[in-house]
Amino acid sequence: MEKLGLNELVFIGLGLYDEKDLSVRGIEELKDADTIFAEFYTSLMPGFSIQKLEAMIGKQVNVISRRVLEEEDGKQLFEATKKGKTVLLVQGDPMIATTHVDLMISAKKQGIKTLVIHGASVVSAVRGISGLQNYKFGKSVTIPFFEEGFVSETPYIVIKENKERGLHTMCYLDIQANKKKYLTINTALKTLLELEKQKKEQVITKKTMVVGVASAGSPKPVVKAGYIKDVIKFDFGAPPHTLVVVGKLHFMEAEALYVLGDAPKEVLEIAE
Q: What is the reported pTM?
């Protein structure tokens, strides 16, 4: 008799904050799994505990490195599916990162059944909690660490293109999980101002409206909207942090930033 779950790979989103963010369906799949892997290099879950998760599901969770998924092309996961149902736990939503999409494609090509159980994503959480409308966002971008005096111009270019179209820009902040380094909103804003000094196109100034969000999905998220000159001095607390550079505002978005994000009252006057 063929073992149920053989040659099956299940991607499960962990959500944003702790193990309680898992869906009921996700927990059911974990309890039924033969092998469970988890990766934690793409984001940060401040309240998450592997020990608590293992106690919840009665199974061992194997943490794997970025190398296993990218340099080894997920071979360890695919081998595990030959012995039974295999789960890969991913922070946020599993299919936001291109690495996981690539893994699913590879699994399908090898005849491995796949299933995705979605989790809360920072993409929807930040947009929702700030009150900015989802359809008014343009291309997203990652702001990297300022390494040895060099920083990529890509964030500046993307923000410029979005602003020309009146769209908001969601900026993911660089993470080096193996070094426990997490770029903050304050440092990211300094980087953008430094890029403005180099480019001199008046895309990012101290009067540019931005929104900083910290600890989205936690019991105490932080949302602060305002001009860069003010937000850059704000204490957002511990990461993870996300930054939004604001484009043209609908009047309801402006009111949301004023009420929910403590933006200055003049934000109501620049809305359309």
A: 0.92
